[in-house]
Design brief:
Blueprint (H helix, E strand, L loop, with lengths): L1 E6 L3 H12 L4 E7 L5 H8 L3 E5 L7 H11 L6 E6 L5 H9 L3 E4 L4 H12 L7 H11 L13 H11 L4 H8 L3 H15 L4 H11 L5
Parallel strand pairs: 1-2, 1-3, 3-4, 4-5
């Protein structure tokens, strides 16, 4: 059973999400937070697998709440899925930089919300390459020459394909390599960049200037 914590200052939004997720097999809403300041205490009590995090909340926004949450659970943190009204919101890119595994529009269809929760719960990243590229172009402040962390030529190639939204199987086919070999390269990329998942690796690639939006 995947536990979900819903963090949003709009009670109607929380009610709608609770109804959508609670009706799905294998998903359960373990708690709610009406502000970012309530997220960490609620997560400590409920230990959710996924936090649906609104980026704009009155007292503490989703960016700071994400940072505090990941700092509170350094070993096995909940996955953070950011909820936003607008895909080009600068708060979204900041939340991704803070450690969120992906983002989702509040107007997404119920089945898209459910699938997004399942994706991040199983440890995958919710990547929207075109949207992240657009966000990076608008809000990233590249520091040239930083962040590639000694990647080999092959690892750099894999990172670029990750930024295009390719899965391990698709990268393996493109590079004519085995999937297990690609998994090893992806693991090396994450380790060298000091990030937890593919979304964070792609954000780091844009932020460092390794990939230009």
């Amino acid at each position: 059973m995947t536990g979900v914590l819903i963090a949003d200052d709009d009670e109607l939004v929380r009610t709608g999400l609770r109804a959508i997720l609670g009706a799905q097999p294998g998903l359960t809403v373990t708690g709610e937070a009406g502000d970012g300041s309530e997220v960490v205490p609620a997560a400590v009590r409920r230990r959710p697998d996924v936090v649906l995090m609104d980026v704009r909340m009155p007292r503490l926004d989703g960016i700071q709440a994400t940072r505090l949450l990941l700092a509170r659970f350094p070993q096995d943190p909940p996955k953070v899925l950011v909820l936003t009204t607008f895909a080009n919101d600068e708060y979204v890119f900041a939340a991704l930089q803070a450690g969120a595994s992906g983002f989702l529009l509040k107007r997404a269809r119920p089945e898209q919300i459910v699938e997004a929760v399942r994706v991040v719960a199983r440890g995958d990243s919710l990547l929207f390459p075109a949207a992240i590229k657009s966000l990076a172009a608008a809000y990233a402040r590249p520091a040239r020459g930083l962040g590639t962390a000694g990647l080999t030529a092959r690892e750099a190639e894999v990172l670029a394909l990750m930024a295009d939204g390719m899965s391990n199987a698709e990268i393996a086919e493109r590079l004519v390599l085995g999937v297990e070999t690609i998994k090893t390269h992806v693991g090396n990329v994450l380790g060298k960049l000091g990030v937890r998942d593919r979304t964070q690796a792609v954000v780091a690639a844009y932020k460092s200037g390794f990939i230009s939006p």
